[in-house]
Design goal:
Layout (H helix, E strand, L loop, with lengths): L1 H5 L9 H11 L6 H13 L4 H14 L1 H11 L1 H22 L9 H11 L31 H11 L9 H6 L1 H10 L1 H16 L8 H8 L11 E2 L16 H9 L8 E2 L4 E2 L4 H10 L5 E5 L2 H13 L3 E5 L5 E3 L2 E2 H6 L4 E5 L7 H7 L4 E7 L25 E6 L15 H6 L4 E5 L10 E5 L1 H8 L2 H5 L4 H12 L4 H7 L2 H17 L5 E7 L11 E8 L3 H6 L5 E2 L1 E3 L2 E5 L8 H10 L1
Parallel strand pairs: 1-15, 5-8, 5-9, 9-10, 10-11
Antiparallel strand pairs: 2-3, 4-12, 6-7, 11-12, 13-14, 14-17, 16-17
Length: 587
């Protein structure tokens, strides 16, 4: 029977010839009707025409030599001839009628017609490269695209099979070389999740089976982490929601190099335990020569908490009322300090404080005087503050929290305190953040007196607040390496930004988009240089671009201003202009 099914090729063409061959093929097989039926179905599935399949099925009981021989011996030659003639007429008549049959639900013809009727234009009449083209006149209807030729029907069926029947197996997709390489890079669970989503699209008909693997690869993220690189077009250089300062290329290279095993706490010369982060500390001291010692914690708030805990737990911290700030996300500096076990001694008023106020508050329980830079607001009008230089002779340590991480004075930010100036003015300890104006990774910097820094370093809390090898590597490379992206963005000339904006807007307009160049103002952000405005330029787009750009493959965060979406170029490097253009054109 298998040989009969494999021989369906000569029976494929509709017509008398294939019908005759099907009938002749039935003569030597000598099977009963019930045995012939599955073979006929198999022939039909293998591509045999309906006439040939019917002739084979009817020919077996009607023209079976054994049956005819039995009729001759029992009924005589007259009845035998009559039976044979009737069998031939039955076969020819039924098969002739089958050529003009209507499409019946459940038959291959009906299935082909239904698939063709609901197929998309790209599915109709599109043959694989290896398939022969349909013969002329084979398509009986441009709507149903149902071939009448048996050979063409086989080619047509290869194209018009329900896509749900062709969903590639999960193991086959995962074995694809490109998908397997992605699994090794990203992990099997993430890749398998993408395969499952793509398979679901194939089942619904939204995706062709041959498109599954390319779609899976396109769905995969660049890394196994959920964080996305975002183009910062807000005009805020140090955007807290975007991770503040972008790292320099030198810092990124150092971070990658330190990702494996490294000598973070090993002296390679002796093979003994080494001083953790000594290279980073040395780089800090080189950047701030007025500091006698330095220490690094995991963020700026941690640096202040360590100082308060080590120097004033159970004692008083003197602080001006106008400097009791909220540092963001609901975290208030007074509550942070009190959590260390220290007590706050407030002096002065919201808008004014004098040196006499500080002097009057000093007592036996005083831990230190804290000077906090109000880095996210400005008080103007009838105000007065006390410089660090006027507090150094009051007999208690002076701790200055400058916040923004500026290590040296900056010509564009004359009112922003820096570590060098604070220490030179008499501060005993300076705390700052590493991921703001310094342009490095998130870290807390402690610079100042050797004895004080040693006290902090040896405090038990320092262990809980210490930084890992990646932060140490990135911070050292930031300090020793070339200019950071933050420093470059600060010094970019407005006319250069305008030229870039004009180029981008012209390219977008040539693509039919509503794009304009507009002058605008940028800010430092991130708790640095409050009130300072930096002249900038932006590409102005319709407001509906804002959510579309956030959903782009490379998300872009702009800002809405006066009913337009502005893409400020101050925080975007010139090398990223092409990425910005692509995101706008394809969002």
């Amino acid at each position: 029977m298998q040989n009969l099914r494999n021989g369906a090729q000569p029976l494929a063409t509709d017509g008398r010839a294939s019908t005759l061959r099907g009938g002749l093929l039935s003569i030597p097989t000598m099977m009963c009707t019930c045995c012939t039926a599955p073979v006929a179905v198999g022939l039909r599935k293998r591509g045999a025409s309906v006439g040939a399949s019917m002739a084979f099925w009817l020919g077996n009981p009607a023209l079976n030599p054994a049956v005819l021989a039995c009729s001759f011996f029992v009924l005589g030659w007259e009845w035998t001839v009559l039976r044979a003639a009737a069998g031939v007429l039955l076969i020819l008549g039924v098969t002739a009628m089958s050529r003009y049959r209507p499409a019946v639900v459940g038959t291959p013809a009906a299935e082909d017609a239904q698939l063709a009727a609901r197929a998309e234009p790209r599915q109709i009449g599109v043959l694989p490269a290896h398939a022969a083209p349909l013969c002329p006149g084979s398509i009986t209807s441009s709507r149903s695209a149902n071939p009448t030729c048996g050979t063409c029907r086989r080619h047509y069926s290869a194209v018009m099979v329900d896509p749900r029947r062709l969903v590639p197996r999960t193991d086959a997709v995962l074995a694809d070389p490109a998908v397997a390489a992605a699994s090794r890079r990203l992990g099997p669970m993430l890749v398998k999740r993408a395969v499952t989503r793509a398979q679901a699209s194939v089942r619904t008909g939204a995706l062709m089976p041959e498109e599954l693997i390319p779609t899976v690869l396109a769905m995969l993220p660049a890394t196994a982490a959920s964080l996305h690189p975002v183009l910062n077009a807000t005009g805020v250089l140090l955007h807290t929601n975007l991770g503040r300062a972008p790292l320099s290329a030198a810092a990124v290279d150092a971070l990658i190099a330190a990702a494996g095993t490294t000598d973070v706490e090993l002296d390679l010369a002796t093979g003994q335990r080494g001083r953790r982060g000594h290279g980073t500390v040395d780089a800090l001291l080189a950047a701030v020569p007025s500091a006698a010692a330095a220490h690094v914690t995991n963020n700026g708030a941690a640096a202040l908490v360590l100082a308060a805990t080590a120097l004033a737990a159970g004692r008083e911290i003197i602080i001006a009322r106008g400097e009791m700030v909220e540092i963001g996300d609901g975290f208030r500096l007074p509550e942070l300090l009190v959590s260390t076990g220290a007590r706050l001694r407030e002096v002065g008023t919201t808008n004014r404080v004098t040196r006499a106020d500080y002097a009057a508050a000093i007592g036996p329980d005083t831990g230190f005087i804290l000077k906090v830079h109000p880095s996210n607001f400005v008080i103007t009008g009838f105000t007065s503050t006390v410089d660090v230089s006027r507090l150094g002779d009051l007999g208690v340590p002076v701790v200055a929290d400058i916040g923004s991480g500026l290590l040296q004075p900056h010509p564009l930010l004359p009112d922003e305190p820096d570590a060098t100036s604070m220490l030179s003015s008499g501060a005993d300890l300076v705390t700052a953040s590493g991921d703001k104006l310094l342009g490095g990774p998130q870290a807390g910097l402690l610079l100042g007196d050797t004895e004080l820094v040693h006290t902090l370093r040896r405090h038990p809390l320092a262990r809980a607040l210490r930084v890992d090898k990646l932060t140490l590597a990135a911070l050292e490379a930031t300090l020793r390496g070339p200019s950071t992206p933050t420093a470059q963005a600060l010094k970019t000339r407005p006319e250069d930004l305008t030229a870039r904006a004009n180029t981008l807007a012209t390219q977008l307009r040539s693509a039919g988009l509503d794009a304009l160049t507009v002058p605008t103002q940028s800010t430092v952000g991130g708790g640095g240089a409050p009130g300072v405005q930096l002249p900038s330029a932006a590409v102005s787009l319709p407001p509906d671009y804002a959510p579309r750009l956030r959903a782009a493959r490379t998300p872009v965060l702009g800002r809405l201003e006066r009913g337009r979406c502005l893409l400020d170029l101050r925080a975007i490097s010139p090398e990223s202009d092409a990425d910005l253009l692509h995101a706008v054109q394809h969002c």
